[in-house]
Amino acid sequence: MRLLPPDLPERAALSLEVHARPSEPLAAPGRASYLAVLVDADERERELAHLSRLCRSHGLPAPAADAVHWSGAVGGLRLKWERHGEFSSYTVLAAAAAAAQPFGDPAAAQLLPGWLAGVPGLTVYAGHAELLSAAPTPTGLQDDFFAGHAVVGSEVGDGAGLAYSDFLIHADGFGRLVLVDQGFTPLMAGRMLQRLFEIEAYRMMALLAFPVARRLAPRILAIERALAGLTDDIARDGGRDEKLLQELTRLAAEVESGLSASQFRFGACRAYAELVRTRIAELRERRLSGLQTIDEFMSRRFTPAVATCATVSQRMHDLSERVAQASHLLSTRVDIAREHQNHALLASMDRRAKLQLRLQQTVEGLSIAAIVYYMAGVAGYLAKGGRSMGVPFDVDLFVGLSVPLLALLAYGAVRRARRRARESEAI
């Protein structure tokens, strides 16, 4: 009998998510190579097809069409593929001879010739790692493993191992990491290598925003200066409000264009930088005498670049708000000026309407006089006609007495017509 209500459709997938992308174990002495490539969305199918060809060449089943990670044994190697949001990563693990030449036969070189170079996408980070069972001397570490470059390193895993790097790209295009086993289990060593590789991959992905910030900085400065000049013009009230509003609209469009083109990259920078900080914390470092820790190195070199990107992003947002405020202020002033103009126009129209009314009333008075004149003429003709028929009429007296009555009739008719016109307008 089932003891639970029906499952959420995504329950199983969400439960397995925390177990996805497990680290590959590696025992000392061992070697690993890592590649992170920036892959466009339209290259995802080609990426999966490229990986499937490698699997078929070794008699392995190809990853599923919707797979986001895969791992398997490829010849004498262990290959792990992971698809991230913007990039994909390939990790190759191999055993190494105890006395092998440092970085002499890297794990990636043992893949099928040309396969790694044919991976779709653009290389973001590539690195080789050596897992040693005994720590080299400081001089041998710097000269033999890092070509004489300054080394950054620390104890990691609360003293379970040592980690070193110069964080440089060497002549073969790869960076270099050295991990010394002082008590690692194979799984611990695999996790530590994955963290070190991911620190570099996420660092490079975060720094993709840095060139964008550099390009935007002069543009932001020019917009800020233009906005300051326009704001001064607004304060002086030089009567150029319409032109100023057009300039502010142009600045607003330019700022929004910069925001839309850069904010995804700046948002990704913040997310990747947080992942770098998380992975460094997971190293659980202890200082080695005379060396910078990885955390200290990143704080001095990487954190300022991330802060620059964050500052430029914030300046863009602040600039957008300032342009919007200036535009709102000027629009309000333009609206008030238009209201004054509309008020003056309405007052002028009201004066014209009053003049027209007076003129109409004058015309109505004249029209009443004309009507009375013509009606009196008609009355005169009637009186003359009656007198011709023998009726004793004094024509002049009759016409004179009829004029007041005719005037009242004409006035009443005009008033009635005006009232009907008002009633029809009200309807």
State the end-to-end distance.
78 Å
| Alpha carbon gyration radius | 46 Å
Helix content: 55-70%
Structural class: alpha+beta
Unreliable stretches covering 5 or more consecutive residues:
none
Q: How many runs of DSSP E, i.e. beta strands?
A: 9
- Which percent range describes the beta-strand content? 5-15%
Largest sheet: 9 strands, mixed
Number of structural units classed as domains: 2
Shape type: elongated
For the largest beta sheet, what order do the strands appear in spatially? 2-3-4-1-5-8-7-6-9
Give your account of this protein's structure.
There is one protein chain. This protein has 427 residues and is α+β, with helices and mostly antiparallel strands. It has helices at 11-17, 44-57, 138-145, 186-207, 209-236, 241-283, 294-388, 395-426, and strands spanning 30-38, 69-74, 77-83, 87-95, 122-132, 152-156, 161-165, 175-181, 286-287. The protein has a 9-stranded mixed beta sheet with strand order 2-3-4-1-5-8-7-6-9, with helices on one face. The radius of gyration is 46 Å and the shape is elongated.
